[in-house]
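hey can u run this one w/ flavin-adenine dinucleotide bound, need the C-alpha coordinates asap thx
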Amino acid sequence: MNDDTTPKTKSPLAGLNLNFLAPAEGSQTASMAPVAATTAGGAVSARVVIVGSGPAGLTAAIYAARANLEPIVIGGVVGGGQLMITSEVENYPGFPEGIQGPELMGLFRKQAERFGARIVDADVDRVNLGGRPFRLWAAGIEYRAEAVIVATGAEAIWLGLESETRLRGRGVSACATCDGFFFRDKTIAVVGGGDSALEEALFLTRFASKVHLIHRRDAFRGSKIMQARAASHPKVELHLNRTVEEILGGEHVEAIRLGKTNEPGEETLPLDGVFVAIGHRPNVAVFRDWLETDERGYLRIDGATTASNIDGVFVSGDVDDHRYRQAVTAAGEGCRAAIDAERWLEAQEAYEAPRAAAGAATAH
Ligand SMILES: Cc1cc2nc3c(=O)[nH]c(=O)nc-3n(C[C@H](O)[C@H](O)[C@H](O)COP(=O)(O)OP(=O)(O)OC[C@H]3O[C@@H](n4cnc5c(N)ncnc54)[C@H](O)[C@@H]3O)c2cc1C
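ok here u go:
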Protein backbone atom coordinates (compact mmCIF):
# COMPACT_ATOMS: atom_id res chain seq x y z
CA MET A 1 0.00 0.00 0.00
CA ASN A 2 1.30 3.46 -0.83
CA ASP A 3 -0.40 4.73 2.25
CA ASP A 4 -3.00 3.18 4.47
CA THR A 5 -5.94 4.26 2.37
CA THR A 6 -5.12 2.80 -1.04
CA PRO A 7 -4.80 -0.93 -1.66
CA LYS A 8 -1.22 -1.71 -2.50
CA THR A 9 -0.74 -2.32 -6.16
CA LYS A 10 1.52 -4.95 -7.48
CA SER A 11 1.79 -3.52 -10.96
CA PRO A 12 1.51 -6.28 -13.53
CA LEU A 13 4.53 -7.22 -15.59
CA ALA A 14 6.60 -4.53 -13.94
CA GLY A 15 10.04 -4.56 -15.53
CA LEU A 16 9.25 -7.83 -17.25
CA ASN A 17 12.43 -9.73 -18.06
CA LEU A 18 14.60 -6.63 -18.25
CA ASN A 19 16.48 -7.35 -15.08
CA PHE A 20 16.17 -11.05 -15.51
CA LEU A 21 17.62 -11.13 -18.97
CA ALA A 22 20.57 -8.89 -18.27
CA PRO A 23 23.33 -11.47 -18.04
CA ALA A 24 25.89 -11.25 -15.26
CA GLU A 25 29.11 -9.61 -16.29
CA GLY A 26 31.40 -12.11 -17.93
CA SER A 27 28.69 -14.78 -17.97
CA GLN A 28 28.50 -17.28 -20.78
CA THR A 29 24.79 -16.90 -21.22
CA ALA A 30 23.61 -16.82 -24.79
CA SER A 31 19.92 -17.19 -25.36
CA MET A 32 19.03 -20.21 -27.45
CA ALA A 33 22.68 -20.97 -28.24
CA PRO A 34 24.31 -24.30 -27.48
CA VAL A 35 26.17 -23.73 -24.25
CA ALA A 36 28.46 -26.71 -23.82
CA ALA A 37 30.60 -29.08 -25.81
CA THR A 38 28.49 -30.95 -28.31
CA THR A 39 28.75 -34.67 -28.89
CA ALA A 40 29.44 -36.17 -32.29
CA GLY A 41 25.70 -36.38 -32.84
CA GLY A 42 25.33 -32.65 -32.22
CA ALA A 43 23.78 -33.03 -28.77
CA VAL A 44 24.84 -30.84 -25.84
CA SER A 45 25.96 -32.86 -22.84
CA ALA A 46 25.91 -31.92 -19.18
CA ARG A 47 26.04 -33.76 -15.90
CA VAL A 48 22.91 -31.97 -14.71
CA VAL A 49 20.19 -30.29 -16.71
CA ILE A 50 17.69 -28.17 -14.79
CA VAL A 51 14.36 -27.38 -16.42
CA GLY A 52 12.81 -24.08 -15.28
CA SER A 53 14.31 -20.81 -14.09
CA GLY A 54 12.01 -19.75 -11.26
CA PRO A 55 13.17 -19.73 -7.62
CA ALA A 56 13.40 -23.55 -7.56
CA GLY A 57 15.37 -23.98 -10.79
CA LEU A 58 17.82 -21.14 -10.15
CA THR A 59 18.46 -22.19 -6.55
CA ALA A 60 19.15 -25.71 -7.82
CA ALA A 61 21.51 -24.11 -10.35
CA ILE A 62 23.41 -22.17 -7.65
CA TYR A 63 23.92 -25.31 -5.57
CA ALA A 64 24.73 -27.57 -8.52
CA ALA A 65 27.20 -25.04 -9.94
CA ARG A 66 28.92 -24.65 -6.57
CA ALA A 67 29.21 -28.44 -6.41
CA ASN A 68 31.12 -28.30 -9.73
CA LEU A 69 28.36 -30.06 -11.61
CA GLU A 70 28.40 -27.41 -14.38
CA PRO A 71 24.62 -27.39 -14.78
CA ILE A 72 22.73 -26.22 -17.81
CA VAL A 73 19.43 -24.52 -17.02
CA ILE A 74 16.82 -24.71 -19.77
CA GLY A 75 14.83 -21.92 -18.24
CA GLY A 76 11.81 -21.37 -20.43
CA VAL A 77 11.11 -18.82 -23.16
CA VAL A 78 9.64 -16.62 -20.43
CA GLY A 79 12.30 -17.13 -17.80
CA GLY A 80 12.24 -16.21 -14.14
CA GLY A 81 8.96 -17.86 -13.25
CA GLN A 82 5.88 -16.50 -11.54
CA LEU A 83 7.63 -13.68 -9.69
CA MET A 84 8.17 -11.99 -13.06
CA ILE A 85 4.46 -11.11 -13.07
CA THR A 86 4.40 -9.48 -9.69
CA SER A 87 6.09 -6.37 -8.44
CA GLU A 88 6.48 -6.11 -4.70
CA VAL A 89 7.69 -9.19 -2.82
CA GLU A 90 7.69 -8.46 0.90
CA ASN A 91 8.09 -11.92 2.38
CA TYR A 92 11.32 -13.18 0.82
CA PRO A 93 13.87 -13.24 3.67
CA GLY A 94 16.83 -10.91 3.40
CA PHE A 95 14.95 -7.96 1.90
CA PRO A 96 13.51 -6.02 4.84
CA GLU A 97 12.20 -3.26 2.57
CA GLY A 98 10.79 -5.73 0.03
CA ILE A 99 12.02 -6.22 -3.52
CA GLN A 100 10.45 -6.21 -6.98
CA GLY A 101 9.80 -9.73 -8.27
CA PRO A 102 11.76 -9.32 -11.55
CA GLU A 103 14.65 -7.74 -9.66
CA LEU A 104 14.75 -10.66 -7.23
CA MET A 105 14.81 -13.14 -10.09
CA GLY A 106 17.55 -11.12 -11.81
CA LEU A 107 19.63 -11.53 -8.66
CA PHE A 108 18.94 -15.28 -8.53
CA ARG A 109 20.11 -15.55 -12.13
CA LYS A 110 23.19 -13.46 -11.60
CA GLN A 111 24.18 -15.58 -8.61
CA ALA A 112 23.70 -18.83 -10.58
CA GLU A 113 25.76 -17.48 -13.49
CA ARG A 114 28.50 -16.28 -11.17
CA PHE A 115 29.22 -19.90 -10.29
CA GLY A 116 29.14 -21.05 -13.90
CA ALA A 117 25.56 -22.18 -14.48
CA ARG A 118 24.69 -21.81 -18.14
CA ILE A 119 21.18 -20.62 -18.87
CA VAL A 120 19.26 -21.19 -22.08
CA ASP A 121 16.06 -19.20 -22.59
CA ALA A 122 14.04 -21.91 -24.32
CA ASP A 123 11.22 -24.34 -23.52
CA VAL A 124 11.85 -28.05 -23.30
CA ASP A 125 9.33 -29.50 -25.75
CA ARG A 126 10.20 -33.22 -25.61
CA VAL A 127 12.06 -35.56 -23.30
CA ASN A 128 13.17 -39.16 -23.23
CA LEU A 129 13.80 -40.29 -19.67
CA GLY A 130 13.91 -43.96 -20.62
CA GLY A 131 17.59 -44.39 -19.74
CA ARG A 132 20.81 -42.51 -19.11
CA PRO A 133 21.90 -40.20 -20.49
CA PHE A 134 18.48 -38.60 -20.25
CA ARG A 135 17.57 -36.69 -23.41
CA LEU A 136 15.76 -33.37 -23.62
CA TRP A 137 14.99 -31.20 -26.64
CA ALA A 138 14.60 -27.44 -26.61
CA ALA A 139 14.52 -25.03 -29.58
CA GLY A 140 15.69 -27.81 -31.87
CA ILE A 141 18.74 -28.70 -29.78
CA GLU A 142 19.18 -32.01 -28.00
CA TYR A 143 20.56 -31.97 -24.47
CA ARG A 144 21.89 -35.07 -22.71
CA ALA A 145 22.19 -35.27 -18.95
CA GLU A 146 23.24 -37.75 -16.32
CA ALA A 147 20.74 -36.21 -13.91
CA VAL A 148 17.73 -33.95 -14.44
CA ILE A 149 16.02 -31.53 -12.08
CA VAL A 150 12.48 -30.59 -13.05
CA ALA A 151 11.44 -27.17 -11.70
CA THR A 152 8.74 -26.08 -14.12
CA GLY A 153 6.35 -24.53 -11.59
CA ALA A 154 2.57 -24.23 -11.74
CA GLU A 155 0.31 -21.57 -13.20
CA ALA A 156 -2.64 -20.03 -11.44
CA ILE A 157 -5.86 -20.59 -13.37
CA TRP A 158 -7.57 -17.27 -14.08
CA LEU A 159 -11.17 -16.49 -14.97
CA GLY A 160 -10.14 -15.33 -18.42
CA LEU A 161 -11.75 -11.88 -18.30
CA GLU A 162 -10.10 -8.93 -20.00
CA SER A 163 -10.76 -6.79 -16.91
CA GLU A 164 -9.08 -9.41 -14.71
CA THR A 165 -5.90 -9.31 -16.81
CA ARG A 166 -5.89 -5.51 -16.90
CA LEU A 167 -6.27 -5.20 -13.12
CA ARG A 168 -3.89 -8.03 -12.18
CA GLY A 169 -1.52 -6.59 -9.62
CA ARG A 170 -3.89 -3.63 -9.16
CA GLY A 171 -6.19 -5.40 -6.76
CA VAL A 172 -6.58 -8.70 -8.60
CA SER A 173 -4.45 -11.54 -7.25
CA ALA A 174 -4.25 -15.32 -7.17
CA CYS A 175 -2.20 -15.62 -3.98
CA ALA A 176 -3.76 -14.81 -0.60
CA THR A 177 -0.59 -15.66 1.34
CA CYS A 178 1.41 -13.29 -0.87
CA ASP A 179 -1.00 -10.38 -1.15
CA GLY A 180 -3.50 -10.57 1.73
CA PHE A 181 -1.41 -8.22 3.82
CA PHE A 182 -2.03 -5.41 1.32
CA PHE A 183 -5.79 -5.47 2.00
CA ARG A 184 -5.94 -4.48 5.65
CA ASP A 185 -9.43 -3.12 6.49
CA LYS A 186 -10.52 -3.43 2.86
CA THR A 187 -13.48 -5.17 1.27
CA ILE A 188 -12.51 -8.01 -1.01
CA ALA A 189 -13.95 -10.97 -2.89
CA VAL A 190 -12.68 -14.52 -3.20
CA VAL A 191 -13.86 -16.41 -6.28
CA GLY A 192 -14.08 -20.20 -6.15
CA GLY A 193 -15.88 -23.08 -4.54
CA GLY A 194 -13.30 -25.62 -3.41
CA ASP A 195 -11.30 -25.98 -0.21
CA SER A 196 -8.62 -23.56 -1.48
CA ALA A 197 -11.19 -20.80 -1.97
CA LEU A 198 -12.71 -21.44 1.47
CA GLU A 199 -9.24 -21.50 3.08
CA GLU A 200 -8.20 -18.30 1.30
CA ALA A 201 -11.44 -16.55 2.31
CA LEU A 202 -10.93 -17.48 5.97
CA PHE A 203 -7.24 -16.50 5.83
CA LEU A 204 -8.12 -13.13 4.33
CA THR A 205 -10.52 -12.32 7.19
CA ARG A 206 -7.35 -11.59 9.22
CA PHE A 207 -6.81 -8.48 7.11
CA ALA A 208 -9.98 -7.54 5.29
CA SER A 209 -12.99 -5.94 6.93
CA LYS A 210 -15.30 -7.97 4.67
CA VAL A 211 -14.84 -11.00 2.40
CA HIS A 212 -17.42 -11.82 -0.29
CA LEU A 213 -17.10 -15.48 -1.25
CA ILE A 214 -18.42 -15.97 -4.77
CA HIS A 215 -19.22 -19.32 -6.36
CA ARG A 216 -21.05 -20.06 -9.58
CA ARG A 217 -22.82 -23.21 -8.35
CA ASP A 218 -25.53 -23.68 -5.71
CA ALA A 219 -23.17 -25.41 -3.24
CA PHE A 220 -19.46 -25.30 -2.40
CA ARG A 221 -17.27 -28.26 -3.29
CA GLY A 222 -15.03 -27.81 -0.26
CA SER A 223 -15.20 -29.93 2.90
CA LYS A 224 -18.21 -29.56 5.19
CA ILE A 225 -16.08 -28.27 8.04
CA MET A 226 -14.53 -25.49 5.93
CA GLN A 227 -17.96 -24.56 4.59
CA ALA A 228 -19.35 -24.36 8.11
CA ARG A 229 -16.42 -22.17 9.22
CA ALA A 230 -16.86 -19.81 6.28
CA ALA A 231 -20.64 -19.64 6.67
CA SER A 232 -20.42 -18.78 10.36
CA HIS A 233 -17.61 -16.22 10.08
CA PRO A 234 -18.96 -12.72 10.74
CA LYS A 235 -16.75 -11.15 8.05
CA VAL A 236 -17.66 -13.64 5.29
CA GLU A 237 -20.70 -13.23 3.06
CA LEU A 238 -21.54 -16.12 0.75
CA HIS A 239 -22.76 -15.52 -2.81
CA LEU A 240 -23.85 -18.77 -4.47
CA ASN A 241 -25.13 -19.04 -8.05
CA ARG A 242 -23.08 -16.01 -9.06
CA THR A 243 -20.67 -15.68 -11.99
CA VAL A 244 -18.08 -12.96 -12.33
CA GLU A 245 -18.94 -10.96 -15.44
CA GLU A 246 -16.48 -8.10 -15.01
CA ILE A 247 -14.09 -6.56 -12.53
CA LEU A 248 -14.57 -2.81 -12.54
CA GLY A 249 -11.96 -0.14 -11.95
CA GLY A 250 -9.48 2.19 -13.64
CA GLU A 251 -6.16 2.21 -11.81
CA HIS A 252 -7.42 -0.14 -9.09
CA VAL A 253 -10.23 -2.58 -8.50
CA GLU A 254 -13.38 -0.70 -7.50
CA ALA A 255 -16.22 -3.21 -7.87
CA ILE A 256 -17.25 -6.55 -9.28
CA ARG A 257 -20.22 -7.21 -11.54
CA LEU A 258 -21.91 -10.56 -10.95
CA GLY A 259 -24.33 -12.50 -13.10
CA LYS A 260 -26.98 -14.72 -11.51
CA THR A 261 -27.38 -18.35 -12.54
CA ASN A 262 -30.61 -19.01 -10.62
CA GLU A 263 -32.61 -15.91 -11.49
CA PRO A 264 -32.49 -13.05 -13.99
CA GLY A 265 -30.47 -9.95 -13.34
CA GLU A 266 -27.06 -8.85 -12.18
CA GLU A 267 -25.58 -7.24 -9.10
CA THR A 268 -22.55 -5.05 -8.49
CA LEU A 269 -20.54 -5.17 -5.27
CA PRO A 270 -18.19 -2.31 -4.47
CA LEU A 271 -14.83 -3.63 -3.23
CA ASP A 272 -11.04 -3.14 -3.26
CA GLY A 273 -9.66 -6.51 -4.26
CA VAL A 274 -10.47 -9.81 -5.95
CA PHE A 275 -8.69 -13.08 -5.19
CA VAL A 276 -9.18 -15.74 -7.83
CA ALA A 277 -8.99 -19.17 -6.20
CA ILE A 278 -10.16 -21.56 -8.87
CA GLY A 279 -7.03 -23.71 -8.98
CA HIS A 280 -3.51 -24.07 -10.31
CA ARG A 281 -2.19 -26.01 -13.26
CA PRO A 282 1.24 -27.63 -12.77
CA ASN A 283 3.51 -27.43 -15.84
CA VAL A 284 3.97 -31.15 -16.40
CA ALA A 285 2.99 -31.63 -20.05
CA VAL A 286 6.38 -32.75 -21.39
CA PHE A 287 7.01 -35.06 -18.43
CA ARG A 288 3.58 -36.65 -18.18
CA ASP A 289 4.55 -39.82 -20.08
CA TRP A 290 7.50 -40.45 -17.77
CA LEU A 291 6.95 -39.03 -14.30
CA GLU A 292 4.23 -40.01 -11.86
CA THR A 293 1.68 -37.39 -10.90
CA ASP A 294 -0.62 -37.27 -7.89
CA GLU A 295 -4.41 -37.07 -7.98
CA ARG A 296 -4.19 -33.29 -8.57
CA GLY A 297 -1.75 -33.63 -11.46
CA TYR A 298 1.36 -32.46 -9.57
CA LEU A 299 4.60 -34.41 -9.95
CA ARG A 300 5.06 -36.97 -7.22
CA ILE A 301 8.25 -37.03 -5.18
CA ASP A 302 9.57 -39.45 -2.64
CA GLY A 303 9.02 -36.85 0.12
CA ALA A 304 12.05 -37.59 2.26
CA THR A 305 14.02 -36.55 -0.82
CA THR A 306 13.12 -34.86 -4.10
CA ALA A 307 13.51 -38.10 -6.07
CA SER A 308 10.86 -38.85 -8.69
CA ASN A 309 9.86 -42.35 -9.81
CA ILE A 310 12.82 -42.34 -12.23
CA ASP A 311 16.28 -42.78 -10.73
CA GLY A 312 18.34 -39.68 -11.48
CA VAL A 313 15.36 -37.37 -12.08
CA PHE A 314 14.58 -34.95 -9.26
CA VAL A 315 11.70 -32.51 -8.85
CA SER A 316 11.42 -29.21 -7.00
CA GLY A 317 9.17 -26.22 -6.45
CA ASP A 318 5.53 -25.55 -7.24
CA VAL A 319 5.40 -28.33 -9.83
CA ASP A 320 5.23 -30.83 -6.96
CA ASP A 321 3.93 -28.59 -4.18
CA HIS A 322 0.30 -27.57 -4.06
CA ARG A 323 0.44 -26.80 -0.36
CA TYR A 324 2.96 -24.00 0.23
CA ARG A 325 3.49 -22.37 -3.19
CA GLN A 326 5.93 -19.70 -2.03
CA ALA A 327 9.20 -18.46 -3.49
CA VAL A 328 11.11 -19.38 -0.37
CA THR A 329 9.73 -22.93 -0.22
CA ALA A 330 10.41 -23.39 -3.95
CA ALA A 331 13.97 -22.13 -3.47
CA GLY A 332 14.40 -24.47 -0.49
CA GLU A 333 13.27 -27.41 -2.54
CA GLY A 334 15.58 -26.40 -5.39
CA CYS A 335 18.45 -26.60 -2.92
CA ARG A 336 17.31 -30.07 -1.82
CA ALA A 337 17.05 -31.28 -5.42
CA ALA A 338 20.58 -30.12 -6.25
CA ILE A 339 21.99 -31.85 -3.16
CA ASP A 340 20.00 -35.00 -3.98
CA ALA A 341 21.27 -34.95 -7.58
CA GLU A 342 24.85 -34.40 -6.48
CA ARG A 343 24.76 -37.31 -3.99
CA TRP A 344 23.02 -39.53 -6.47
CA LEU A 345 25.63 -38.81 -9.15
CA GLU A 346 28.42 -39.42 -6.69
CA ALA A 347 26.92 -42.79 -5.72
CA GLN A 348 26.47 -43.73 -9.39
CA GLU A 349 30.02 -42.79 -10.23
CA ALA A 350 31.38 -44.70 -7.22
CA TYR A 351 29.47 -47.74 -8.46
CA GLU A 352 30.20 -47.39 -12.15
CA ALA A 353 33.92 -46.49 -12.08
CA PRO A 354 35.12 -49.88 -10.70
CA ARG A 355 32.84 -51.69 -13.13
CA ALA A 356 34.22 -49.67 -16.06
CA ALA A 357 37.79 -50.34 -14.86
CA ALA A 358 37.02 -54.08 -14.55
CA GLY A 359 35.54 -54.02 -18.04
CA ALA A 360 38.64 -52.35 -19.44
CA ALA A 361 40.88 -54.86 -17.69
CA THR A 362 38.89 -57.77 -19.15
CA ALA A 363 39.15 -56.28 -22.62
CA HIS A 364 42.96 -56.27 -22.44
C1 LIG B 1 0.67 -13.07 -8.73
C2 LIG B 1 1.61 -13.85 -7.85
C3 LIG B 1 2.25 -13.21 -6.82
C4 LIG B 1 3.12 -13.94 -5.99
N1 LIG B 1 3.74 -13.28 -4.98
C5 LIG B 1 4.57 -13.98 -4.15
C6 LIG B 1 5.20 -13.34 -3.07
O1 LIG B 1 5.00 -12.15 -2.82
N2 LIG B 1 6.03 -14.10 -2.29
C7 LIG B 1 6.25 -15.44 -2.51
O2 LIG B 1 7.02 -16.06 -1.79
N3 LIG B 1 5.65 -16.06 -3.53
C8 LIG B 1 4.81 -15.38 -4.35
N4 LIG B 1 4.17 -16.02 -5.36
C9 LIG B 1 4.40 -17.48 -5.52
C10 LIG B 1 5.77 -17.74 -6.17
O3 LIG B 1 5.87 -16.95 -7.32
C11 LIG B 1 5.91 -19.22 -6.51
O4 LIG B 1 5.68 -20.01 -5.38
C12 LIG B 1 7.32 -19.51 -7.05
O5 LIG B 1 7.62 -18.69 -8.15
C13 LIG B 1 7.45 -20.97 -7.47
O6 LIG B 1 8.74 -21.16 -7.98
P1 LIG B 1 9.09 -22.34 -8.98
O7 LIG B 1 10.52 -22.17 -9.35
O8 LIG B 1 8.65 -23.64 -8.44
O9 LIG B 1 8.15 -22.12 -10.27
P2 LIG B 1 7.93 -20.86 -11.21
O10 LIG B 1 8.25 -19.59 -10.57
O11 LIG B 1 6.56 -21.05 -11.75
O12 LIG B 1 8.98 -21.09 -12.40
C14 LIG B 1 8.85 -22.13 -13.29
C15 LIG B 1 9.68 -21.83 -14.53
O13 LIG B 1 9.69 -23.00 -15.36
C16 LIG B 1 9.56 -22.58 -16.71
N5 LIG B 1 9.01 -23.69 -17.49
C17 LIG B 1 7.78 -24.24 -17.45
N6 LIG B 1 7.68 -25.22 -18.37
C18 LIG B 1 8.89 -25.29 -18.98
C19 LIG B 1 9.43 -26.10 -20.03
N7 LIG B 1 8.71 -27.04 -20.65
N8 LIG B 1 10.72 -25.88 -20.41
C20 LIG B 1 11.49 -24.94 -19.80
N9 LIG B 1 11.02 -24.15 -18.81
C21 LIG B 1 9.75 -24.33 -18.42
C22 LIG B 1 8.61 -21.40 -16.64
O14 LIG B 1 8.74 -20.60 -17.81
C23 LIG B 1 9.14 -20.70 -15.40
O15 LIG B 1 10.18 -19.83 -15.75
C24 LIG B 1 3.33 -15.33 -6.22
C25 LIG B 1 2.69 -15.97 -7.28
C26 LIG B 1 1.84 -15.24 -8.09
C27 LIG B 1 1.16 -15.94 -9.25
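Residues 129 and 135 are 6 Å apart (CA to CA). anyway lmk if its weird
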